[in-house]
């Protein structure tokens, strides 16, 4: 037995087509609406894609800004598109390989060349720093507090600016200065008048001066006095000065001759204290010279006449070879005699006749007869 298939009829096909036409007619509005929406979505997508392809960015170079419209997506591509080349020392706000979006900003600061003179050398340095201090620091230069920088550290950096750095070194040295000691004189009533005695030896003091020397780049340029300190005080020399009047009489002998009284004793004359054998009063002084006729250069005692030393005396009054002190004249030595020289009369020798004549005659002088040894200054 076979399977029975119901055959299609003309009536069934007409019914199907009629159904399709009826569905299409009923849903035409919905189909149209869907198509419009699809077109709108596609249009929006195309606009979005176009917007993603074209973007606006702000490009700032050395403070000057400009708006740039570009299709490029990378920073490097935009710079290449705008023919902008970067110096190795230029700074940029974004990495070259970073992506760009609409409204992004690219800031470029151009490096400028400056000349830096330091430690005897000059080199060109490119910098983007705004201040001299920052440019110097960028070089790794360590400034000391006394170093000089021209122009000043807070000055603006400009192209081809000359920056000079002078190394300043200050050294403090010490200089010694001796302080002389003073001589202090004190009266001493136990010492004879005219005599002195050192009570304390003096010694110099010492002052240390501090002097600051300034060197610029190793060359000395200036110095100044900083201060001083006393290292050692000066010690004064103390000298006792005698004020005691001489009272001692060494010889009690009193002799009288030709109306004159001779008394031996101790006295101080011309700052020299000496013993004397006798004192001659009312002595008359005259002068003579080898330039006079008949006067030789040899004395009666055999010595050669000498101005300031030789006198002619009466050898019965003053022995030859003895020293005397003549008031107003000083120490002289009895070396010569003369026919007219007798008693209390003394002839003083001068080299020139003019000086002898000028001396003239002097009366009423006191002469101290000392002895064969000349007193020395105490």
From TrEMBL:
Ranges that cross the membrane: 31-51
Per the database entry, which stretches of residues form a coiled coil? none
What is the protein name stated in its UniProt record?
A: Ubiquitin-like domain-containing protein
Q: Which PROSITE patterns match?
A: G5
Check the record and name the InterPro entries matching this protein. 3D_dom, 3D_YorM, DUF348, G5_dom, Resuscitation_pf_RpfB, RlpA-like_sf
Q: Which PANTHER family match?
A: CELL WALL-BINDING PROTEIN YOCH, RESUSCITATION-PROMOTING FACTOR RPFB
SMART domains hit by this protein: G5
Q: Which residues form the G5 domain?
A: 165-245
A Pfam family recorded for this sequence: G5
Organism in which the protein naturally occurs? Paenibacillus puldeungensis
């Amino acid at each position: 037995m076979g399977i029975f298939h119901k055959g299609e009829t003309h009536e069934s096909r007409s019914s199907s087509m009629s159904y399709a036409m009826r569905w299409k007619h009923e849903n035409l509005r919905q189909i149209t609406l869907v198509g419009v929406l699809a077109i709108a979505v596609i249009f929006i997508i195309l606009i979005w894609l176009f917007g993603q392809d074209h973007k606006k960015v702000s490009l700032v170079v050395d403070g000057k800004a400009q708006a740039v419209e570009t299709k490029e997506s990378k920073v490097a591509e935009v710079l290449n598109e705008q023919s902008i080349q970067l110096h190795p020392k230029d700074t940029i706000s974004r990495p070259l390989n970073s992506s760009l979006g609409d409204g992004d900003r690219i800031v470029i600061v151009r490096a400028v060349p400056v000349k830096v003179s330091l430690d005897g050398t000059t080199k060109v340095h490119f910098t983007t720093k705004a201040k001299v201090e920052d440019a110097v620091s960028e070089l790794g230069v360590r400034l000391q507090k006394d170093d000089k920088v021209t122009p000043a550290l807070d000055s603006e950096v400009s192209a081809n600016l000359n920056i000079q750095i002078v190394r300043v070194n200050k050294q403090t040295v010490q200089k010694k200065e001796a302080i002389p000691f003073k001589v202090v004189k004190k009266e001493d009533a136990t010492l004879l008048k005219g005599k002195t005695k050192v009570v304390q030896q003096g010694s110099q003091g010492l002052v240390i001066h501090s002097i600051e020397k300034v060197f610029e780049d190793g060359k000395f340029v200036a110095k100044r006095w900083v201060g001083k300190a006393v290292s050692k005080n000066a010690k004064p020399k103390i000298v006792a000065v005698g004020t005691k009047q001489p009272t001692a009489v060494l010889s009690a002998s009193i002799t009288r001759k030709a109306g004159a009284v001779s008394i031996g004793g101790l006295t101080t004359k011309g700052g020299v204290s000496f013993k004397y054998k006798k004192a001659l009063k009312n002595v008359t002084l005259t002068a003579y010279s080898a330039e006079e006729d008949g006067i030789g250069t040899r004395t009666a005692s055999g010595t050669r006449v000498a101005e300031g030393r030789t006198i002619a005396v009466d050898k019965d009054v003053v022995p030859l070879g003895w020293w005397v002190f003549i008031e107003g004249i000083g120490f002289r030595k009895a070396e010569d005699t003369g026919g007219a020289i007798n008693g209390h009369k003394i002839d003083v020798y001068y080299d020139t006749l003019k000086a002898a004549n000028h001396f003239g005659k002097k009366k009423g002088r006191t002469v101290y007869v000392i002895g064969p040894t000349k007193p020395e200054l105490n």
